[in-house]
Amino acid sequence: MVPEAGLEIDHVSKRYGDVVALSDMTFEVRPGELFGFVGSNGAGKTTTMRIALGVLEADSGAVRWAGEPITLSTRRRFGYMPEERGLYPKMKVLDQLVYLAKLHGLPSNGAHRAADDWIVRLGLRERRLDEVQKLSLGNQQRVQLAAALVHNPEVLVLDEPFSGLDPVAVDVMSQVLREKAAEGIPVVFSSHQLDLVQRLCDRVGIVNKGSMVACDTVDALRSSAASELVVHAPKAPTGWAAGIPGVEVVSEQDGRTTLRVPDDVDDQQILQTALDTGPVHEFSRHRPSLAELYRNVVKEGQ
């Protein structure tokens, strides 16, 4: 049965001396949701994940799963993939996964069966008896994901799971995460690959300097930002759009002008102003991508 409440990070703060690692961090990852956690290095993503897993203790705030405080028993049902590989380098792939499955409470037969299943699912069949240290970085990453999944967790917390993967492996991992979410599991992962986050996630949280500065669906975040118009008017003089009320000129180069335009501004007025200078070869509107939104949010917070 899928719980009604998911993984809740409730007003969590953490300091290291004078350094504020987290400040009132609050968000929820709902059952069956893929939640992307994005931010620059040092923004607080890993600290949040480690607190959720009990690796670190918060100074204040709470972490709950299914509406209840996290306990040691609860954490055994979590799947965690750290950014730094936490594998035993001299252990063979199969032995390592079986060992980790047993640590999470699976009986020996069940641990072997689960390990074999994930080895096959993640394309590691030919490497199952290799030592981890002899694998490529991409295959080590696959083993790390298998280690997070081998005990059939109820929550997945993944720190940079796509780092170092080739496009085929990215597709495999993306499909696995979608399948887990479809089973009702809350999945939260951090990534610097914002195009992938935009494509994969139901909701996204943008973190800056230890605080959640934006959190919503990608579509909602993009819709809340002013759209941009690209106008290619080769005969237009520099500054032709500067006098249009409400319009911000983002760039002008070789007759191509990019304008930031609020939704309440009449784009037909802009088109007519451009046509008054001569022919218009392009007039197109687009919403900022997640990467563009992220850059703007971080820049505003500096």
TrEMBL record:
ABC transporter domain sequence ranges: 7-234
Q: Which UniProt keywords apply?
A: ATP-binding, Nucleotide-binding, Transport
Listed InterPro entries:
AAA+_ATPase, ABC_transporter-like_ATP-bd, ABC_transporter-like_CS, DrrA1/2-like_C, P-loop_NTPase
The record's annotation in SUPFAM superfamilies points to: P-loop containing nucleoside triphosphate hydrolases
Q: Name one Pfam family in it.
A: ABC_tran
From the UniProt record, which GO molecular function terms apply? ATP binding; ATP hydrolysis activity
Q: Which residues form the signal peptide?
A: none
Q: Which SMART domains match?
A: AAA (SM00382)
Record family assignment: Belongs to the ABC transporter superfamily.
**Name of the protein described by the UniProt record:** ABC-2 type transport system ATP-binding protein
Q: Which organism is it from?
A: Kibdelosporangium aridum
Q: What is the lineage of its organism?
A: Bacteria, Bacillati, Actinomycetota, Actinomycetes, Pseudonocardiales
